[in-house]
């Protein structure tokens, strides 16, 4: 079973690296550096305004540490067919799941420690602690995450103790109590309590490999986990595993009626409805727009907001270009007596409209977060130039290249 997990893990990592190469291209890395720099600058400015021993710092520390515990899910790498083909080996699967837990815990603990590293300046600025106390909180966090993953794994088995199947105990209630004691009382007590909770979980789970395994629940959770991963990758590239489902959004019907139903707008009619009703591209557009707006709200300065707005506007335009070929697999679109030039003109109009809407939203956020007339004007000029360049020059070049 260890060989089976190793084989699946190797295949899984190859797939992840394939998508990561597409995600972390030169444009995204540049945008990521700008975002990290801007957020770091905003974080440092926030820390300068904080004072020690404020009453609300400890609840924030607890909430952040509790939220960090939710990062890093159990990756079992189970497949739909396993419920049939691995069922005879059910009682031998415990070595497989232990290997899955080790892999999941490695990634999860890295996230825990990195999150605590980011939180450390806030702790020292508002509630200064000794090195030993900080180490105690870090150890507590690591132990609680181990308990959390153990609870998730045990929840896949059908124990006679029904309360073990309630996620509220070791995933919500126990971590909350331990973190409150660690922050308000002493980190040493939280370490002891976390060790006790971890020990109790392991004691209660003795012989778990001899219990009946809930295949459908475990496979369903793994499918949901991978769906979240694929949705992230889908922000930057096409993911074949995600099957788009057309869904009518009645609240957008008023906007769609603005497209006149005449022969010159044949493809504009098709593209506009496809964009609104396609979960893949409409979701990509809305998510990138919302993420850009959130980041622009927290980033101040003269040039950082301008660069960030330009980068997100470029990412949106770049990611929407493949929508031009969205309906090529439908044979009836090839029967339309419409010239390619008219189709391109319709798509240009759609792309221009979407980028203008995003650009206006970015301008509003820049003006609200830190109104400086100079920054707003520069951002507007850069956005106008970028939209014109994307629609009039880059789009035709990309279409000719992929013809």
UniProtKB/TrEMBL annotation:
Transmembrane segments: 20-43, 55-72, 106-123, 129-151, 172-197, 281-300, 306-325, 350-369, 375-395
Origin superkingdom: Bacteria
UniProt keyword annotations, A-Z: Membrane, Transmembrane, Transmembrane helix
Upper lineage: Bacteria, Bacillati, Bacillota, Bacilli, Lactobacillales
InterPro entries: EcsB_ABC (IPR010288)
UniProt protein name: ABC transporter permease
GO cellular component terms attached to this protein's record: membrane
Pfam families: EcsB
């Amino acid at each position: 079973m260890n060989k089976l997990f190793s084989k699946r893990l190797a295949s899984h990592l190859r797939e992840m690296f394939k998508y990561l190469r597409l995600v972390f291209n030169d444009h995204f890395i540049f945008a990521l550096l700008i975002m990290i720099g801007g957020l770091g600058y905003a974080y440092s400015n926030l820390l300068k305004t904080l004072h020690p021993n404020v009453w609300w710092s400890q609840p924030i520390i607890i909430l952040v540490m509790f939220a960090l515990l939710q990062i890093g899910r159990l990756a079992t790498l189970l497949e739909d067919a396993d419920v049939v083909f691995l069922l005879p080996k059910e009682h031998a699967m415990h070595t497989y799941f232990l290997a899955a837990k080790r892999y999941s815990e490695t990634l999860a603990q890295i996230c825990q420690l990195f999150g605590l590293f980011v939180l450390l300046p806030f702790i020292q600025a508002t509630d200064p602690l000794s090195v030993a106390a900080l180490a105690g909180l870090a150890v507590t966090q690591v132990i609680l995450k181990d308990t959390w993953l153990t609870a998730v794994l045990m929840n896949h088995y059908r124990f006679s103790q029904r309360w073990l199947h309630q996620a509220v105990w070791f995933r919500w209630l126990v971590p909350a109590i331990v973190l409150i004691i660690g922050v308000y009382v002493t980190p040493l007590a939280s370490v002891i309590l976390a060790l006790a909770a971890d020990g109790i979980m392991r004691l209660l789970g003795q012989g778990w490999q001899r219990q009946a395994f809930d295949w459908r629940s475990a496979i369903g959770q793994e499918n949901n986990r991978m769906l979240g991963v694929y949705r992230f990758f889908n922000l930057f590239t096409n993911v074949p595993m995600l099957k788009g489902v057309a869904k009518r959004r009645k609240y957008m019907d008023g906007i769609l009626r603005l497209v006149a139903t005449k022969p010159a707008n044949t493809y504009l009619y098709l593209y506009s409805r496809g964009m609104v009703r396609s979960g893949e591209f409409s979701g990509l557009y809305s998510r990138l727009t919302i993420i850009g707006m959130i980041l622009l709200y927290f980033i101040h300065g003269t040039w950082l907001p301008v660069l960030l707005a330009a980068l997100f506007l470029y990412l949106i335009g770049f990611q929407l270009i493949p929508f031009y070929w969205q309906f090529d697999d439908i044979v009836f679109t090839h029967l339309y007596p419409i010239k390619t030039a008219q189709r391109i003109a319709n798509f240009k109009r759609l792309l221009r409209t979407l980028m203008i809407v995003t650009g206006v939203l970015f301008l509003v956020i820049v003006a609200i977060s830190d109104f400086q007339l100079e920054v707003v004007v520069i951002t507007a000029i850069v956005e106008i130039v970028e939209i014109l360049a994307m629609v009039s020059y880059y789009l035709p070049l990309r279409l000719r290249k992929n013809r």
